[in-house]
UniProtKB/TrEMBL annotation:
This is CinA C-terminal domain-containing protein. Residues 47-196 form the CinA C-terminal domain. InterPro entries: CinA-like_C (IPR036653), CinA_C (IPR008136). It comes from Saitoella complicata (strain BCRC 22490 / CBS 7301 / JCM 7358 / NBRC 10748 / NRRL Y-17804). Gene3D superfamilies: CinA-like (3.90.950.20). Pfam families: CinA (PF02464). SUPFAM superfamilies: CinA-like (SSF142433).
Amino acid sequence: MNTRTLRFLSRSLLLYHTTHRSFTTTAIKMSAPSLPHQIISSLRSLHQPLPLATAESCTGGLIANELTDIPGSSEVFRIGVVAYSEEAKEGVLGVARETIREKGVVSEEVAVEMAKGARLQALKTLSDSTPNLAYGISTTGELGLGSQQDTAWLAIVGPEESRIRTKLLKGDQIRWDRKTNKLVTAYEALELLREQIEGWKKDSD
């Protein structure tokens, strides 16, 4: 997220935790109301709209939910997978068992393999005449541990498989309750995706 968004979000969360008032997802969505819309619009505006798929663990489908709230998202959003268990990450997304064993389920390597698996699912929905380009986005982490122990890895792969971007969230970035941390993580992943799309568009001009 940009500095303005993070500042707004931090103030909102601080108010909640100091007053113990009921906090809803509205504050976070108000901080970046156009982010999902920007992503869908960017993907649709290309000469050949690029498909997108999500592979979520710790965010539990929130990214897919935010994107599909946007009218016209069906033109680019193809599939959303909530792979919560290690078995689902392996069986559905193709994450290697060795990667989980050696790096841990909450790791950059697992996040990247999840995003690659999501991208592959998106590519499977395309016709043979369509360019082999698509985006995969993933999240894996532990949210709700408390005491600033929460950790999340985000990954974006696409539109080519070699174009990869990752981000680690921890400490003060996700220091809230479980529900709030999930939403913060989802929006951080969306911002990472937006940056990836804009970067590719600039490189392609």
